[in-house]
Structures are given as C-alpha cells and as structure tokens.
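Email to the structure team, subject: PhnA domain protein model.

Hi all, the expression group asked for a predicted structure before they design truncation constructs. Nothing fancy, just the tokens so they can compare against earlier work. One-line instruction: predict PhnA domain protein, return tokens.
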Amino acid sequence: MTIENIVKQRADAKCELCSSEDNLSVYEVPASPDTTAGSCVMVCGTCRGQIEDADTMDQNHWRCLNDSMWSQVPAVQVMAYRMLKRLSAETWAQDLLDMLYLEEDTIEWAEKGIALEALDSIQTLDVNGTPLQAGDNVTIIKDLPVKGSSLVVKQGTAVRGIRLTDNPLHITGKAAGTNMVIIAAYCKKM
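Reply from the structure team: attached below.
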C-alpha cells in the first residue's frame, strides 16, 4: 500500500485539518523525523495553498483547527500547532494554543519546522540592505584581511557569481583568485 493510500484511508478521504473533501493531496510535514505515512497529512487545496504561502492566509478558514488539533495523529497535531503559531496574534488562536497538549517529541518536531521556516525567510543582505541572490556580482567595500593568510582583499575588488551559504550573514565567491567566505555586510551589489 502506498503512502498516499495509507494517509487517504486514515483521513477517511477528507482534509485532516479542515475536513474538506475537495482537491485532496498528501502533504509531507517539513522537518519530519521519518519518511513514512506518519510524517504526512491529507490536505485540501485551500489548506495547502495557505500553508505554503503565508501571505494568502485566511484566518477564519483556520478556525477548523479547534477540532483537528485534537487528532491522535502526530503529523496533524504538528500542523495544527504550526498554523496556530502563525495565527497567534489572533485571540482565538492563542486560546487554542494554550489548550493544546502535545507530547515532548511532537513539540520538538513542530518547533524544528518553525525554526526552519524562520531561517528560510531570512535574506542575505548587502551593506545597503539590498537582497543578494546566488549568481549576483558584488564589490568589496573595505579592505578585508583573509583569516589564516597574509592576503588582504582590497576595497573595490569585484566578486562575480557569488553563492549563498546556510548562514544569511555570509556569501562565498572568488576574490583575489581564491574561493572564500565573505561577510555579506562588507559587499555592495553591482
């Protein structure tokens, strides 16, 4: 039996968050501890769209979490927790969060996903606050000594085709003939 069939059967062919029966699909909950059906939820198109794009959130749609947060399925509990956290500025959502009880490992899973979302939303910015993307060209704005070397990258040096790192404060690129990690705040987008 496939994961989709297992999740569909478990969900009784309904969205596990809002109980809609339209446009259903399996959604793998980010930061899952495994890749089984236990790490997935059945969601409708409306829920999926709002989960993946927070700008389209309709807070009234998520009042359905009042019921689904009591699910015995940890993946559903995690999604309910994360969505309630997104809506925590709403009094009703904060009240539901205060009532929600989760096992310790389920809370860790939920919080890990929230932390990953926060990291994804942090942009790498140059000295002027301009967002940098992979492949951009930048100019070094001040002389930078290279750690572990006597080399100094001079102000005005062009770094072409930068790459982003896991740390939004750093970029990598080739300067003075050497690949190196550069602090993004010492760069200006060309």
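The chain has six helices and ten strands. The radius of gyration is 22 Å. Ping us if the truncation boundaries need rechecking.
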